[in-house]
Amino acid sequence: MEIDGKEIKAQVWDTAGQERFRAVTSAYYRGAVGALIVYDITRRSTFDSIKRWLDELNTHCDTTTARMLVGNKSDLENIRDVNVDEGKTLAEEEGLFFIETSALDSTNVKDAFQIVIREAYNNIRRKVLNSDSYKGELSSNRVSLINDSKNTSSCCFR
């Protein structure tokens, strides 16, 4: 993806919300600059577990991590179990971006990633401009950020 004439690359980790990945996901949260919390609009239980995932995200991520709540399977409107307004309300209460998508027909999927990546880029840019803990190496078409802090961690999107 290109932002402000610079090439932006994102590393994406999809844990599919499965318990068996829970032990390793906390390691990937550290240093993450963006997160998509996805629920299935046809399964209320996935929406009901969002608070737990947000708690985990809040525990392991910086407060400036770009976050989006995503209601997936918008193509299955006829069997919807979670109202659009419920998703919007929760996102607003938690300070999250919100979008509904359909992985089946690709509706809004690209938009969801682009919004989070752009917000993560803007957050990092603000950190670089406002903090001595980052050194930005800028060229005409690529951004490389080097974190000078003692803690090293990976950078990923979920």
Automatic annotation (TrEMBL):
GO cellular component: endomembrane system
One GO MF term: GTPase activity
InterPro entries (UniProt xref): P-loop_NTPase, Rab_GTPases_membrane_traffic, Small_GTP-bd, Small_GTPase
One Pfam family of this chain: Ras
Protein transport listed as a keyword: no
Highest taxon of source: Eukaryota
Record localization: Endomembrane system
Membrane-topology descriptor: Lipid-anchor
Signal peptide: none
Assigned protein family: Belongs to the small GTPase superfamily. Rab family.
Record's protein name: Uncharacterized protein
Organism the protein comes from: Mikania micrantha
